[in-house]
Design brief:
heterodimer; A: mainly beta; 4-stranded antiparallel beta sheet; 11 strands; B: mainly beta; 6-stranded mixed beta sheet; 12 strands; globular
Chain lengths: 115, 115
């Protein structure tokens, strides 16, 4: 069964550094998402992406964050200058349709630790 | 805005016990409802879904019925196993336009099943 792939599984970085989290969505999917989960807390929406542009973003997704689909397969989340509070598990998700009854397919996540 | 409230954990049960995890929601339209499961060290996996009132989603012995009158989607299983130990997330995907159909999650409920 096709799956969403995320790399790396764990990233450690120093405060102020830039990080890029990578995702390969399922190949025929058109809608892409990033979520994050701070340890022990709820899964929070960051951003949705369709047709090479952001469809919606949350308050968390400020100017330090950006997303890109640099080619036909990858979908990346960049954090320009990491802060301690960016430490979290970041999940990429994709969906074939925009239909509300279509579930999102999630990757296994990248655990980001900012020191 | 949309929100999902699920019972606080952790929930600890003995093997073969009956499980209920309560979930209620607030939405402006007619959302689809989902349960996702996160096994230790893994990502989010879709467990089951229901897309309209009175629908029952089921998978792996788990069931949940979409109750519009009580705005609820409680997860149940008749006889839990040790392998069911995980975090369970209730989520909704709004049907109205403008939300790009992002998923809104509850806080998650940690279930531990002891032999």
């Amino acid at each position: 069964e096709p799956e969403v792939t995320q790399t790396p599984s764990h990233q450690v970085t120093q405060m102020g550094q830039e990080v890029i989290l990578r995702c390969v969505p399922i190949s025929n999917h058109l809608y892409f998402y990033w979520y994050r989960q701070i340890l022990g807390q709820k899964v929070e929406f960051l951003v949705s992406f369709y047709n090479n542009e952001i469809s919606e973003k949350s308050e968390i997704f400020d100017d330090q964050f950006s997303v890109e689909r640099p080619d036909g397969s990858n979908f990346t989340l960049k954090i320009r200058s990491t802060k301690l509070e960016d430490s979290a598990m970041y999940f990429c998700a994709s969906s074939p349709f925009s239909s509300y009854n279509s579930p999102l397919h999630f990757g296994n996540g990248t655990r980001l630790t900012v020191t | 805005g949309d929100s999902v409230t699920q019972m606080e954990g952790p929930v600890t049960l003995s093997e073969e016990a009956f499980l209920t995890i309560n979930c209620t929601y607030t939405a402006t339209g007619y959302p689809s409802l989902f349960w996702y499961v996160q096994y230790p060290g893994e990502g989010l996996q879709l467990l089951l879904k229901a897309t309209k009132a009175d629908d029952k989603g089921s998978n792996k012995g788990f069931e949940a019925t979409y109750r519009k009158e009580t705005t609820s989607f409680h997860l149940e299983k008749g006889s839990v196993q040790v392998s069911d130990s995980a975090v369970y997330f209730c989520a909704l995907r709004e049907s109205s336009g403008g939300s790009n159909y992002k998923l809104t999650f509850g806080k998650g409920t940690l279930l531990t099943v002891n032999p």
